[in-house]
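Next comes a concrete protein, fold included:
___
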Amino acid sequence: MIVAFSLTPSGGDAVDDDGGMSRAVAAAVRVVRESGLPHQTTAMFTYLEGDWDDVMAVVKRATEAVAEHAPRVGLVLKADIRPGHTGELTGKVERVDRHLA
C-alpha cells in the first residue's frame, strides 16, 4: 500500500519565528525516515509504502510527534491499497515515464 499524508499542526509552539511550521513538520518527517519504509517527502505530502499495519503505525507515530508541538493536529490521508504489489512508490512513476518517452 502507498499512503500520501499531510499533518497540519495548530497552536502551541508549532509556529516557527518566520510563521512557518517546519519545526513541527520535521518531527513527523524524522519518524518517517527512521521507520525504514520506502518514502518520499514533498512540499505538500509525505508518501510512505509498506503493509497496512506498518504504514499506519508510522502515520500514528508521526501524528504524535507533531502533537508534541501543537495541541491540535489535522491529518489528510489518501491510500492506494493494492495487495501483492511492492515498489509502487517509484514503479507507478516509471510506467508513466515510459509512455512519455
Summary: The chain has one domain: 2-100.
